[in-house]
Amino acid sequence: xxxxxxxxxxxxxxxxxxxxxxxGRQWARxxxxxxxxxxxxxxTVDDVLLAVSELITNAHVHAHSSxxxxxxxxxxxxxxxxxxxxxxxxxxxxxxxTSPGGRGLALVDALSDHWHTHPQKDxxxxxxxxxxxx
Length: 134
Fold this sequence. Notes:
The chain has 134 residues and is α+β, with helices and mostly antiparallel strands.
């Protein structure tokens, strides 16, 4: 018989619209440090922190809601999940060259190994997966 159990560690926290992006980035960095990633995979840490910033910003700006962030490490992938109260699914768009916005999902797509959206009755959750380098 094989052991089909999965071992994982995770953290969750809600970030309000006021000051949530910076706090979310700092919170995520602390947990990445606890996994040893800041020393072992600093490039991946930078990617995760930028994605966390973008996803929390999207929750605040587009959903006008707090962002519930869950980090889950399953020894293969760090799943970064951000839930907001908007039911509309995100649609990547081509950014206007004169606008500072419109690049969030394109960045998440470029930085993560993959990402997807889960529609839910009380909003949606976007989950991006990051595999550490090295």
